[in-house]
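**User:** Here is a favour to ask of a fellow structure person. Please take any protein you like and set down a full record of it. No explanation is needed for now; the record alone will do.

**Assistant:**
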Amino acid sequence: MTPARRAAPGTASGSGRPKARTGGRKAAATGRSPDAVVSAQLRRPGGVLGPRASRTIGAILDATRQIFLTRGYAATIDEIAKAAGVSRASFYTYFPSKRDVLLALGTDTLDAARQQVKALAKLPSDWVLEDLEDWVGEYLEMLEEHGSFVFAWTQAAHEDEAIRQAGMKGHLALCRQMGRALASLGDRPATDPAETGLLAFSMLERGWAYWRLYEGTVKRATLQRAMARMLAATAR
């Protein structure tokens, strides 16, 4: 790493991923989503979750991420169960519905995104383009794990008002944090932080999605640097 490049704060050393990687599983185990109108529900057979149950829940959450990446919210419980290597009955043992597993993933995604926004706000006052480029790289790595939720939630929100309300409050709060973080890198106050943050997230998320779709055609390094330049222009 050259002197101009600095590791983004709030991430696991050398991993390129946020520290709170298990937030979604913890959220599932507690059944709570702090920014949601409706919370993910988790059934607790026998009242206690042992190691085997925890592994099954983790497999279901991981499989849901994978399936949502290609099928979105249209994915069925049967598809999720098959990818997780569990039966449909096992899925329902722990999650009452597809909505509940989506909301459990949502808590994990929101926590991971918050950490990345905090890392952006902590860039040094003498930051250079390479610092932003590194940060974009960290954010794209985060989307490798959580990006499937972003698009599945957008689809689900069109069909389910409760899901839309559950995610909208937390998402707009995150957008405001992003807008303020970008403004803190420049010398102007954040006049419309929610709108600025929404545009920044849209660029990052759609850019990542198209890069995956056009894999082998669009170079990630080039895309990453272009995104960094756009964020720098917004900050300045």
